[in-house]
């Protein structure tokens, strides 16, 4: 319901702005100044979303409502830009830079919305909570447990089959996050890798070594879930590090554009 209300308000806001723009054109008033200020104000409002995310303790509405406002505001800003310039691609070099930045923000915003709809839900499905900065330490801890397990296997079973297999294959897997592209695309290459390597070596193990392999594969499955957290959180953080600087650049260029317009007007 909130989405419909916010969408209706955004459409109404654009309709009123468009009507005022046409009225100013007929009255021989400079409508570009008016729509420019309206567009810049909307962009400033969009920038508040990142500030709101950094202050969740302040009761300024739910994060979901702010996300809806951000999406509606982004589409509104794109529409206002076309209204302001009179075309999808303006002629002036400086205006083209502004258009390029706005289109980058719009496309990255759409990509970010898709990411926010996909990855958080999939991260919840892993039944695992991992702080991004702690992922290297978590993987190191799992690797240490795996190596201790292999040493214990070698000592108690007096067999080197599983230890050699660990050195040849499993050590590579436990060294760092793996299968980034597969996790990013929602595929299960990591799961299949664990299953295939486990089943391949299982046929050569003695009965005493099998429990150690089972524990090793359990550790590998936990790491596979952590690897997905690493992939998803890296992508979302990477998107943020792109979207915010481009927005800041647009605001700086837009502010300078306003200053220049008003200086020449004087």
Walk me through the structure.
The chain has nine helices and no strands. It is mainly alpha-helical. 22% of the residues are buried. Helix content is 82%, strand content 0%. The mean pLDDT is 84. Helix 2 runs antiparallel to helix 3 and helix 8 runs antiparallel to helix 9 (210-265).
| Portion of residues within helices | over 70%
Q: Identify the overall geometry.
A: elongated
User: How many beta strands in the DSSP annotation?
Assistant: 0
Portion in strands? under 5%
The major β-sheet equals:
none
H/E series, N to C?
Answer: HHHHHHHHH
Structural category: mainly alpha
Could you list the spans in which at least 5 consecutive residues all have pLDDT below 50? none
Supply the number of helical segments.
9
User: Averaging pLDDT over every residue, what do you get?
Assistant: 84
What's this model, at a glance?
The protein has 266 residues and is an all-alpha fold. Helix content is 82%, strand content 0%.
Distinctive features:
266 residues, 9 helices, mainly alpha, single chain
Question: Secondary structure elements and their pairing?
Answer:
Layout: H1 2-26, H2 31-54, H3 63-85, H4 93-125, H5 135-157, H6 161-175, H7 180-184, H8 189-202, H9 210-265
């Amino acid at each position: 319901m909130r989405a419909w209300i916010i969408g209706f308000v955004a459409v109404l806001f654009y309709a009123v702005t468009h009507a005022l723009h046409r009225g100013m054109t007929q009255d021989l008033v400079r409508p570009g100044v008016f729509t420019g200020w309206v567009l810049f104000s909307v962009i400033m409002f969009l920038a508040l979303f990142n500030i709101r995310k950094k202050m969740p303790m302040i009761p300024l509405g739910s994060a979901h409502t702010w996300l809806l406002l951000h999406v509606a505001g982004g589409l509104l800003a794109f529409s206002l830009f076309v209204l302001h310039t009179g075309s999808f691609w303006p002629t002036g070099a400086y205006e083209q830079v502004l258009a390029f930045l706005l289109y980058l923000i719009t496309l990255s915003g759409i990509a970010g919305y898709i990411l926010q709809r996909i990855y958080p839900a999939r991260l919840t499905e892993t039944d695992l909570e991992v702080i991004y900065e702690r992922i290297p330490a978590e993987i190191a801890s799992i690797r240490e447990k795996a190596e201790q397990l292999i040493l214990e296997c070698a000592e108690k079973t007096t067999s080197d089959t599983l230890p050699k297999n660990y050195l040849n294959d499993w050590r590579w897997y436990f060294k760092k996050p793996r299968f980034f592209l597969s996790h990013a695309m929602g595929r299960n290459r990591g799961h299949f890798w664990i299953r295939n390597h486990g089943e391949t070596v299982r046929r050569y193990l003695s009965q005493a070594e099998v429990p150690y392999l089972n524990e090793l594969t359990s550790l590998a499955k936990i790491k596979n879930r952590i690897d997905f957290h690493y992939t998803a959180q890296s992508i979302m953080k990477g998107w943020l590090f792109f979207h915010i600087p481009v927005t800041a650049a647009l605001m700086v260029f837009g502010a300078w554009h306003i200053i220049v317009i008003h200086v020449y007007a004087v």
